Amino acid sequence: MLRLSNPFIRNVFALKTFSRNVSSLHIFSPAKKAAIPNRVFIFVPQQSAYVVERMGRFHRVLEPGLAVLAPLLDKIAYVHSLKERTIIIPSQSVITLDNIALSINGFLHTQVFDAYKASYEVENAEWAIEQHLCSSMRHEISQHPLNHVLKHRLSLNEVLNAKLNALTKKWGITCLRTEILDIKLPDVIEKTLHERETASRKKDTQMIAAEGRMMAMAKEAEGRKHAQLLSLEAQKTERLNKAAADAEALRYQMNALAEGIASIAKTLNIHRHGADAIGLQLAKEYISALSEMGKNAQTFVIPQNIMDVSSVVKEALNIGQSRPKSATVKTEKPNMDSAKQTNIDGVKV
């Protein structure tokens, strides 16, 4: 069996035991390790810092790795972890500017950056940081109403973190983040806020629905207006086309009428018995018109000389004989504005 008679082997085993002991120490625990026997060789873990005192006075800070101490003179007084640490802030009672009592808790992340200051500038850093944060939280929240506290939690976190850093820098500790975790409202206030929020959401929903209906009605009215404009435009185009067609048809009809009158006039001037033929044609049309009007049971047309139809025919035949033979017929197109009427025995032709 191996005996631990060699001083070097005894130092190695003692070092392992010491390392297990210091790994469970509190981050800000300032208690001196007087019970740990002095050793020559010390292994400092990663992200740790050992404060060494020589004859009761600060000597140096051991960095991670192997360190050699002077027997009986050097002693490890403080052990600090350089890792980021979370400190839980218990629930605190605070009062807002509008006199509403709240219950707030939170947490903060800290880290030691100077082991010397963390050992000799403050007795219990964790307790001091916790108390200072609670005091700052009460003071800061008392400056704002409840709505500001609920809506601007991020800005409050930044203000609290800045205040903590202004204090802990001289302790060799930095506050990385400060967070307000929970804000507990009184039951009455919480119920009132819930009802207000419900009413606000209902109002927003109704406003959105009303805006949707209004937009739909506006779109529908715009569609009807557009359809009406298109209909009026179509009617206008149809009327213009119809008027143009009627004008064109009337123009062709008047041209045909003018050509017929010119042909008749030419016939009267050329043929010897042209006037007699015209009189005969007028008599036929007269008799035909009388027969057509007689077909209507509600209309009665009585000629001026109903018993002597032959006289009407004779007058029609004598139309051409009454004009001088040497007269010439002037062919002109009829005027549309002044239409002439010819009366034969009271009948309009």
UniProtKB/TrEMBL annotation:
GO terms for cellular component: membrane; mitochondrion. Its main location: mitochondrion. One of its GO terms (biological process) is mitochondrion organization. Residues 338-349 have a biased composition (Polar residues). Residues 322-349 are annotated as: Disordered. Keywords: Mitochondrion. It is found in: Mitochondrion. Residues 39-197 form the Band domain. Belongs to the band 7/mec-2 family. This is Prohibitin. It comes from Schizosaccharomyces japonicus (strain yFS275 / FY16936).
